[in-house]
Amino acid sequence: MGFEEMREAGDVDTVWMDGEFVDWDDAQIHVLTHGLHYGTGVFEGVRCYDTEDGPAIFRWEEHLDRFYQSGKPYNLEVPFDREELTEATKELIRRQDLPSCYIRPIAYYGYDMLGLSPETCPEQVAIAVWPWGAYLGEDALEQGVEVTVSSWQKYSSAQIPTNAKTTGPYVNSVLASLEAKREGYTEALLLNGEGNVAEGPGENLFLVRDDEIYTPGLAEGILDGITRNTVITLAREQGYTVHDDATISRGELNTADELFFSGTAAEVTPIRKVDNVVVGEGSRGPVTEDIQKAFFDLVERRTDAHEDWFTYVDV
User: 72, 90, 154, 165: which is the annotated catalytic residue?
Assistant: First the structure.
């Protein structure tokens, strides 16, 4: 569903911009905004879940940590503190009466000049929220998705900071995702400069072999995903051995017992094929199913575990 369809359904009508709540149609920037031309912005993707105690934002504090840290390589200081951003986000959800939603905070260099150095440009911030279901398709959580190894390579931390969630470098992900769609796949996988598996365009990757779980380490050029960290924690709590600094070759994708994605949008999504090679039995595997169940039991608060990971909108 596109934004206009959601608006017609009455789900979204307000955006928070630089300390003010504005109508969706008025949430605009100048065409000469620095961030638009050079990708000088940082952002987050966060989910809010419907629980018995009302809407609950998942791992909001960790997302805020990364939001502020992402701006540091670019000398971009978010001009609002944690409390202001938290209250703005809660109020957006309340005003639009959303039991669950996706949250997009973004900070960027605004309108002043278009030299490469944005030193005189204002630092601006916006937050939007909207309903968003299963990112990779409604059936993907159970049936899994088909992916392809992209011809585009994941950039290294020597080129662009890989530990920052920066707007401009996501062109790398866009290219990989577009290529995958053209080839008839749901999503892509990117290799790094050494030819090892890095991550998906917007997801971290997990591989299962002999009931042990492997995921590429930070040295492979991945984003240190918050959902990735959640999966690692839950898997270990369930008794699985997790190798969180693995090097995974392209060939291992074809011999894995199971593969799955993790991410704020993708949540925990099985992979059933890579380049038309069937993964395992070609369906969601038992380890993936265990992790997926633990994840949704957690975020939908069917368990009291990790209460500190939740920020309740009505509190």
Answer: 165
